[in-house]
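Notebook entry, structure prediction.
Reason for the run: the old model in the group folder had no record of what sequence produced it. Starting over properly, with the input documented here first.
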Amino acid sequence: MAVVEVKNIDGETVSEVELADEIFNVAVKGSVLHQVVRMQLANRRRGTAKVKRRSEVKGSTSKLFRQKGTGRARRGNIKSPLLRGGGVVFGPEPRDYSYKVPKKVRRLALKMALSSKYRGNEIIVLDGFELDQVKTKAVASVIERLALEKPLIVINGKDEKLELSSRNIPGVKVLRVEGLNVYDILNHKTLVLLQPAIKGIEGRLAA
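New structure, fully documented this time:
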């Protein structure tokens, strides 16, 4: 098992913790990570883009001018797609972009994402992140003190003070163990694990 230092919010090493090799030290395959990240981004798409067809455009249905004798094109009504303000022929319609990847692949990709952070020395374990009150400045000072670059902070359960204090800091995100996902791990530079969250991750990914 890999051994990682546990630090406090002042940056001092207080102990060590072991990380399970079957979760934090597996072979990383880019194709698997790409497959799951692509699925996540597709599932986030709202798919609400919509244009008005010829039958949905508001306007008169009368013929613009007579069929013959004007020397002009044989026009129909003003809602023709060929005219400005008319209907759109091949525009987008509301659709569902979501699809599923097998559960085993999703779990494997999550292990690979965690392993990539461990191998890149981008995992920091903290013994805790206690706040007396909701205060953005307190979280910002800890991030600056520990030199955390675009951190993803993983907590074991609900921590309203930490979640509310960090939400207005650019590049900082707080996630509970049950919400941990491949995209957010790869999208953030530093993975900050609170020590109680490690057991939660291992319990979630135990196969």
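Summary: The mean pLDDT is 93.
The old model has been moved to the deprecated folder.
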